[in-house]
Amino acid sequence: MIFTGPRPRVPVPGTAFTDFVLERAEQYGDTVALVDVTGGVRYTYAELADAVRRAAAGLRARGFGRGDVLAMLSPNRPEYPIAFHAAALAGGAVVVLNPLDTADDLADRLDETGAKVLVTVEAEAEKAAGLLARTKLEEVVVFGEADGATPFAALLADRPVPAPDVDPAADVVAVLHSSGSTGYPKGVLLTHRNMVANVLQTSLVAPLAEGETVLAVPPFHHAFGLIMTLNASLLQGATLVTMERFDPEAYLRAIQEHRISRLYIVPTIAVLLAKSPLVDRYDLTSLRSAVSGGAALDPATAREVEARIGLRIGQGYGLTEGLVSFMQLPGAEPNGSVGPTTPNIECKIVDITTGAELGPNERGEVLVRGPHVMKGYLNAEEATRQVLEPDGFLHTGDLGYMDEQQELFLVDRIKELIKYKGQQVSPVELEAVLMSHPRVADAAVIGVPDEEASELPKGFVVVREPVTAEELMAFVAERVAPYKKVRRIEFVEQIPRTPVGKIERRTLKERERAAG
């Protein structure tokens, strides 16, 4: 059975992504499009559109064009969408990188995509210089100034030039990274059409009214931040207030001082709004709506937020390969679902053993199809075939069911990724690091529930020689990005494995639940 949801289909414009997002920029004119949380940097819509066109011309003058790749290594700031859309308008693609990743991880991403230009911030300039020496990068551009880097202002040509033609259905405009169902991160190829479709879909389901102000905290290098927070807001003429890093008190102060009306949050922030005594110190009455994403939101937490500050939280669900596919209205009563499909999206639930299609209230793997589904993985044809069916349905790796109202309820993750504060953490990667310790004989990693972080990576370890949990956690922390650290260690006699040697993570999770 294919579920289509109650939302009517809509035509997807056959246009380039930047043309679509900024099509009304001149109409919005003097409305502030982007402002730093400190108020120090701001762009109106007219200034944003002009800067994008001039930066695109500057890139083209440097030989950057269709088929080339620009890398973004930056926290959220007002200049981020200028660089992103300049590369897109010049005909290229953008690989969005996580500033928390290690230099080795970043070098791998840059090499596999063949990025020519890296745009970064002053704080990352030293790391960027090291990447320039070990990858195919030709130039590092920095917001501000740094030794050995080109100031971003130098890219702004005196006059725009005509943009090259692109094929919206075939040309890639963004590369994000996802671990998929297993293994190490892979580059997810998103075309202009994929991005146009999902910005349109999310804007129709969770629209912003005229004059709304959005607090842009979800990172722009994440699909949730890039699609809903950034580009859907720009399409609708909202004002985005950017924060480079999350701090509870600064976050609440920003809501008060900027009179924020729409929040895009992860469950960790919902817990803050529900429980922190800091909330009582600030005026949050400007808030009208919130959308949660990145990980499952406990309905009880959503109800606590509503009881405390009168704010209802809608919930969305998607994945990097399929972007935002389901959305509960921001004003809906929390019921544990992630809502029905967004427009133009089909869903089916299949038996995880036989692949047979299931009906309402039957649990199986969630598959989705629509114009938002990725083109495929970069340089990974076999991995693409494993998740993309010939008929266009994408395997999400998640277990769930659709009810009679065609709302999706997620039950578990087949794919075993750990969600730490909205970030994806691969158990396979952490197991490899643990296994590289000379005193470790075997290891397995799972996510264990945590109210603040959603999940914490926990390692189960079989040792060859005595070693402390603290030593092992420090060993891992030195070799991975901060959000990937193993937060707990338990020593065991044996790691449960199948006859072919695969770790039985479900057994470990059941053991964890039994232990309370």
From TrEMBL:
Keywords: Ligase
AMP-dependent synthetase/ligase domain span: 23-378
A GO term for molecular function: ligase activity
Record carries keyword Lipoprotein: no
A Pfam family it matches: AMP-binding
InterPro entries (alphabetical): AMP-bd_C (IPR025110), AMP-bd_C_sf (IPR045851), AMP-binding_CS (IPR020845), AMP-dep_synth/lig_dom (IPR000873), ANL_N_sf (IPR042099)
Residue ranges of domain AMP-binding enzyme C-terminal in the record: 429-502
SUPFAM superfamilies: Acetyl-CoA synthetase-like
PROSITE patterns the UniProt entry points to: AMP_BINDING
Family named by the database record: Belongs to the ATP-dependent AMP-binding enzyme family.
Protein name: Acyl-CoA synthetase (AMP-forming)/AMP-acid ligase II
Organism: Kitasatospora paracochleata
